[in-house]
Every structure is written in structure tokens, then in C-alpha cells.
Amino acid sequence: MSFLSKTLSRVKPSPTIAVTTLAAELRAQGKDIIALGAGEPDFDTPENIREAGKAAIDAGKTRYTAPDGIHELKEAICAKFKRDNGLDYSPAQITVNSGGKQTLYNALMATMNPGDEVIIPAPYWVSYPDMVLLAGGEPVIVETSLQTNFKLTADQLEAAITPNTKWLIFNSPSNPTGAGYSRDELKEITDVLLRHPHVWVMTDDMYEHLAYDDFEFCTPAEVEPQLYERTLTCNGVSKAYAMTGWRIGYAGGPVELIAAMRKIQSQSTSNPCSVSQHAALEALNGTQDFLAPHNEIFVRRRNLVVEKLNAIDGISCPVPEGAFYVYPSIAGLIGKKTPEGVEIDSDETFCTQLLQTHGVAVVFGAAFGLSPNFRVSYATSDDALSEACDRIRAFCETLSA
């Protein structure tokens, strides 16, 4: 009999972390690797936020806090939801967690029973299905397509709902595609949910402020107020504020659900880092002036990558509305072979050969539930992105039928 839990057999390690780790190992061996797998900005945390963290240390704010966050931060989150999303929450409806991942995990652990289903549009962030499985539920994967710019349609959602459906996990702008739902597109989704009052919505709004061109972010409870009582609106400071390592996520939702999530957290990690909470307080309450300049840089990088990838025979790359990822298709390369005779039979093989022969680390599409694609994070320098795209082109040009 195995000593380890049977539950572990239902899940797999994070592929994005695996790619990042492998790239670091190859670099340590002296190899020239361009890593485009990590989903974190290359900007430093803004100075005012860093200073708030230092001040918290100097003021001795390094002790335990309430299990799911200090009151001042909860008030700042309430103000943020009202200011940015038109949503009214009280501090009793707010949870603060050690990163956005813990927010989602706590919610699933607090609500899932055996046989409960969670609808997850694919491609999805790699952790969604495995968190559902760890919580004892069943992920229901609904594949989107390049033709709809990787967005779930109302008809697809309607067809996926069963009496066992408990949640829809909704992510816009998306990791891994960067696709964002317009207000009209989201209203079609919420109209379906209104017809199924047993289905709740768990949003992942982590890329809210990374919205480009004329795309305007919106979130389900904002678009359809009738869903307010069965929506958990999740967000965090990791991406827009370049605070990935500070590990602060948060959510607003019904009091009963928030209390259940607090119970889970009180018996697992307890409070998020006290210093990080005070830094997050400054992030939400302080100047937002750096957001627009950062987004200008991301737009430039996005355009560079999209243009270069679309110039490669066999690759098709849509233009994303937000986040800092592109999700190109390699359908035109499947079946070709490398000079060594390796057949490109999947996106995983493509990415493995690309890394081994040309030193570019990207994440294969199967990890996100939709193939044949790969994800590029363009949250790195223009020079690195340009060189990486040139290497991808060079690799593709070595492939033959």
C-alpha cells in the first residue's frame, strides 16, 4: 500500500513551473536559453510599494494578523471593487490570501463535494483542473477555438451545464491566450447563468489592468448584478503591480462563502505575510500612474511578437486583448520532421525540440488543455523577444515534410 494519498494520483505538477525550472537548469549548465515560460512582469515592484513594505518592517508589523487579512487592506479592497468595478462589498465579504492561487483553492475546498462539476473553458490556466480534482470535484473542460479567439460561447456553456454543475471558472483577460471578453460577449454568458440558478461563477480577474487598445475590462457581477449573490470575484496584486513574489490575492463574495474560506485558511496557512499585506495596501490606495506606461511597453512587445510569429510559415498567432501572453497555433507544422528525423507529432514535441536545439523555452499547449499551440510570455525585454522569435523561425525553417 502506498504511503502517499490517493488524491495525488488525480493531479500533476504545474507544467509552467516545470518549464521555468528546466530553463534555469540548462542556464546553470552554461547553455544560452531564452525563457518565455514564466508569467510574471520583468518590472520591479514600484518604489512606493517597496517603501511601504520596508516601513511595515521598521514599524514592527511582522506578527500574525487575522487569518484572512488585516481590516485596513480589506477596506482598501472594498474601495477598489467600488472604484474599478462598481461592486459594493463590506469587509466581511472580503478574503485576503497568499496569492490568487490560494484564493481559488480555498473556494473550491470550501464548496466541492464528490460528483460536483466545475466548467472550465480551454485553454485554461494550468492549475484550474488540478485544483478541482484536489478538492474532490470533477473538471468539465469545454474547448474553445481559434475561430472564436479562444472565447467560450453561450451555446457551449449552455450545453456543458448539468444538474451537478457547481461553478464556472471565468478568466478574462485569459492566461494563456490574452483573450478578453467584451461587455456584450460577457452578457451572453451571464444570460445563460441566469437560467441556471444552481451554478456559481468564480472569476479570475488577475489581468484586469493589463488591457490594451480599445478593450475595456468587465467582470460578471458588474455586467449582470443579479449574479452578485453567487459570484466570487477574485483578483490580486501580482501582475499589474509586479508583485508576484509578495503573494497577495483577494476576493469578494457572499458572507457565508467568505467565512467558509476563512475557516479553510485558518487551518492551513493562516494569515498572508503581514509585510506583503501592507505593501498591497499601498498598491491599491497609492498612485496608479505606472500602469499606463507599463501597458504601453506590453503593447509594443505584444505587437513585436505577434508580427514576428505570424511571419513564420505554419504558425498562426491571434492578437490578444490583454495579459502578457500569446497563444499561437502550430497546426501547420504538425507532421513535419526535424533534421534528426524527429516528427513534430504534438505541441509538446515541438516545444521540447525548440528548447533542445535552439534554446527557447515556451510552454506547450496541451498543458493548457488545447492543442496544437504553445504559450509565449512577452513579459521580458524587446531584445530577448526579438531574438527568441528569430530562433523560433530558424527552428521552423529546419522542419521538412
Automatic annotation (TrEMBL):
GO biological process: amino acid metabolic process
Pfam family, one: Aminotran_1_2
Keyword annotations of the record: Aminotransferase, Pyridoxal phosphate, Transferase
UniProt domain Aminotransferase class I/classII large: residue ranges: 31-392
EC number: 2.6.1.-
Catalysed transformations (reactions): L-aspartate + 2-oxoglutarate = oxaloacetate + L-glutamate
SUPFAM superfamilies: PLP-dependent transferases
Cofactor requirement: pyridoxal 5'-phosphate
GO molecular function: L-aspartate:2-oxoglutarate aminotransferase activity; pyridoxal phosphate binding
Transferase as UniProt keyword: yes
Family annotation (InterPro entries): Aminotransferase_I/II_large, AspAT/PAT-like, NHTrfase_class1_PyrdxlP-BS, PyrdxlP-dep_Trfase, PyrdxlP-dep_Trfase_major, PyrdxlP-dep_Trfase_small
Sequence similarity: Belongs to the class-I pyridoxal-phosphate-dependent aminotransferase family.
Assembly information from the UniProt record: Homodimer.
Protein name as catalogued: Aminotransferase
Organism for this UniProt entry: Shimia haliotis
